[in-house]
From TrEMBL:
GO terms, molecular function: efflux transmembrane transporter activity
Entry keyword set: Coiled coil, Signal
Organism lineage string: Bacteria, Pseudomonadati, Planctomycetota, Planctomycetia, Planctomycetales
Family: Belongs to the outer membrane factor (OMF) (TC 1.B.17) family.
One Pfam entry name: OEP
Protein name: TolC family protein
Coiled coil: 207-234
Residues annotated as signal peptide: 1-22
UniProt keyword Disulfide bond present: no
Keyword Signal listed: yes
Length: 474
């Protein structure tokens, strides 16, 4: 009887200890999530907006924003936790199942020759066929490798998004600067036209046309300011900070670089693109799943033991109260071959499907690299054309027309058209400069990072428009 109570106490202790361990929180991140969910239930409006990051306000380099995004971006943090979650599943998959502990109570005692059976305790453990646990562990490890590659892809995608948003912000800022400088130039032209109008050398039409152009420029500046706010909010989202944070690009960025060898880029993309590595990890996972499906033909073994508490007050004259001890063994019978065969064929088909998906992604990668390379090369050539030919000629045209306006050889409309043309070329150059940075960022994402030794420099930006000769006041 004492033995029975001891067994009851140990079983209850193990059950309560297991329940207590299940309530413990091991991940600090989950503790924060749990607290946030609890607060949201009672204070839905509390902390609904991310705080303004004062240390990130003002001009910063793109590298600073990238480092901040790599540590704070929610997509990256989620991908890291997926890797962690899958990594913890490896020991789960490669471990034995919990043993089963059972107790049997007899409301009516079963009489035996040794005495009445009062209580039975049994324990059993399932042992998978040889190789199954190892295959399950390798399957979980393959899934972890897949999420590791996906993490690298998310990081590269986030870096590319930050660069694209940064270069767009740079374009808007520089366009505002150029537009304001050209507005000032137009104001000075307007003042000259006003003086010439007062002296009777030109009609009031020149003055009114100048005023209209100034209004158009102010309208464009309002639109650009709105785009600047939108661009700052877009970059702030990638950094996981308040959209009201006044993020700014540097006034002058280093000239970009263009890859020199398309063949090298394509080889680099095939070897390094994380999405391709993720597909290879998926293929390995499918192969491990196929191996596990083939192992299902082998039976698993279940071993157990049973202890029976026998009382000493039996009706049998030979009752001695000796307890009984039994050993059990069993296997599952994999006799439903259609089910097993279908599982194997399904795993084979899935592996082939993944392999074909890899081939498709590889072809898509080669296409993207070739397209981005051609796009960046075209942008580089256009930048060279603008800096060496178009912009100098546009400035010279405005200079000549300014001088000709003084002598009456060119009317005011032609002068304003030349000014507008120069502004358009200045903005187009800035657009090309930002687009080239965005193309290179996308190319870097596709090939899994760019080796700086394989790059060639981009032509530096031409000097800014300043000190252009104006019409001379009479």
């Amino acid at each position: 009887m004492a033995m029975k109570y001891t067994v009851h106490f140990l079983s209850l202790f193990l059950l309560l200890n297991g329940c207590k361990s299940a309530q413990q929180i091991h991940d600090p991140g989950y503790a924060q999530v749990s607290q946030a969910v609890h607060q949201a239930a009672y204070s839905p409006t509390q902390e609904t907006v991310n705080p303004v990051a004062a240390d990130l306000e003002g001009p910063h380099s793109v590298e600073e924003y990238i480092q901040y995004a790599l540590s704070q971006n929610p997509d990256i943090q989620a991908a890291r936790k997926r890797v962690e979650a899958n990594a913890y599943q490896v020991p789960v998959a490669s471990s034995l199942q919990d043993p089963n502990l059972g107790m049997t109570f007899y409301p009516e005692q079963v009489q035996t020759a040794a005495g009445p059976q009062e209580f039975a305790l049994n324990i059993s453990q399932k042992f998978p066929a040889r190789g199954k646990l190892n295959a399950q562990g390798e399957l979980a490890e393959s899934q972890t490798n897949e999420t590791r590659a996906q993490l690298a892809a998310v990081e590269l995608a986030t870096v590319a998004k930050v660069k694209r948003a940064y270069y767009e912000l740079y374009f808007i800022q520089q366009t505002i600067n150029v537009t304001e400088a050209d507005k000032q130039l137009l104001v000075e032209i307007r003042d000259v036209a006003n003086v010439r109008y007062k002296t009777g050398k030109v009609s009031q039409q020149d003055l009114l046309r100048a005023e209209l152009e100034i209004s158009n420029v102010e309208n464009e500046l309002i639109r650009l300011e709105q785009k600047l706010v939108s661009g700052q909010a877009k970059l702030a989202r990638l950094l996981h900070i308040s959209p009201q944070t006044k993020l700014l690009a540097l006034e002058h960025i280093e000239p970009g670089s263009l890859p020199a060898d398309l063949d090298w880029l394509q080889r680099q993309a095939i070897a390094s693109r994380p999405e391709l590595h993720a597909q290879l990890a998926t293929l390995e996972k499918d192969r491990q799943a196929l191996n596990l499906a083939r192992l299902a033909y082998k039976p698993d073994v279940t071993l157990g033991a049973t202890w029976i508490d026998v009382g000493s007050t039996g009706v049998s004259p030979v009752a001695n109260g000796n307890d009984s001890f039994l050993i059990t063994a069993g296997i599952n019978l994999p006799v439903y071959r259609k089910k097993l065969d279908s599982a194997v064929r399904s795993a084979e088909a899935k592996a082939v499907s993944t392999a074909r998906t890899y081939d498709s992604l590889k072809d898509e990668t080669l296409e993207e690299v070739a397209d981005l390379f051609a796009q960046a090369k075209s942008q580089q050539d256009l930048l060279t054309l603008f800096s060496e030919d178009i912009l100098p000629k546009a400035r010279q045209t405005l200079e000549v027309s300014s001088q000709a306006y003084n002598t009456g050889e060119v009317d005011f409309l032609q002068l304003v058209d030349n000014w507008r043309e120069l502004l358009r070329f200045e903005v187009s150059y800035l657009r090309l400069e930002a687009s080239l940075g965005q193309s290179l960022a996308e190319l870097e994402r596709v090939i899994g990072g760019i080796d700086t030794q394989a790059l060639q420099p981009i032509p530096a930006a031409p000097e800014a428009l300043d000190n252009l000769p104006l019409p001379v006041e009479p």
